[in-house]
């Protein structure tokens, strides 16, 4: 009778999970570096593995396909770009904090977020990227729509405001500012611009009481 091997201990499972997470971070970082360096069309699973110091087999095992890897990269690079938002209730102030924090974060933008903006721009002409970034942009717009709806309910946003229109405008504005910063950082004064843009939306959306 063949003995059944013991189940992995809790600590062993945790160590395995930590290794998987460490591998994923290394691979996504390598992918982002390649996107920034050479563009998405030059990125392959083999090149990612080589840059990260892993075999292509490990990259394939981790993601399966290049499309799945790009999806993971899009999610990883967008997450946490503006810290502290999760602690704020939906509403106008949260949206203004998002705008201010997004523009302010450009000064310290790292390779992961650079890759996201470059991939977003390329998605307009890359069929493998378009569905990924449509989903990411819709999540971004939904977040802003929630803030506008909450602002209307609490009386800080004018009731005639179209949440859909504002969401499209804000996402386009922030992404566009980000791309301009990547192209010519000296042309984008983030310190001044964050105040100007936040102030514009406060004046445009706010309820002006006598």
Whole-number radius of gyration? 21 Å
Number of domains: 2
What is the share of helical residues?
Answer: 55-70%
CATH topology of the largest domain: Tetracycline Repressor, domain 2
Spans with pLDDT under 50 lasting ≥5 residues?
none
CATH superfamily of the largest domain: Tetracycline Repressor, domain 2
Secondary-structure element order, N to C: HHHHHHHHH
Organism: Pseudonocardia cypriaca
Keywords: DNA-binding, Repressor, Transcription, Transcription regulation
DNA-binding region: 44-63
Protein name: TetR family transcriptional regulator
Account of the protein in words:
The structure is a single chain. By secondary structure, the chain is mostly helical. The protein folds into two domains: 12-77, Homeodomain-like (Arc Repressor Mutant, subunit A), CATH 1.10.10; 80-205, Tetracycline Repressor, domain 2, CATH 1.10.357. The protein is 70% helix and 0% strand. The protein is built from nine helices and no strands. It is globular and about 70 Å long. The protein starts with 9 loop residues before the first helix and ends in a 5-residue tail after the last helix. 26% of the residues are buried. GO terms for molecular function: DNA-binding transcription factor activity; transcription cis-regulatory region binding.
Keywords:
0% strand, Arc Repressor Mutant, subunit A, mainly alpha, globular, 210 residues, Tetracycline Repressor, domain 2
Write a compact overview of the structure shown.
Keywords: DNA-binding, Repressor, Transcription, Transcription regulation. 70% of the residues lie in helices and 0% in strands. By secondary structure, the chain is mostly helical.
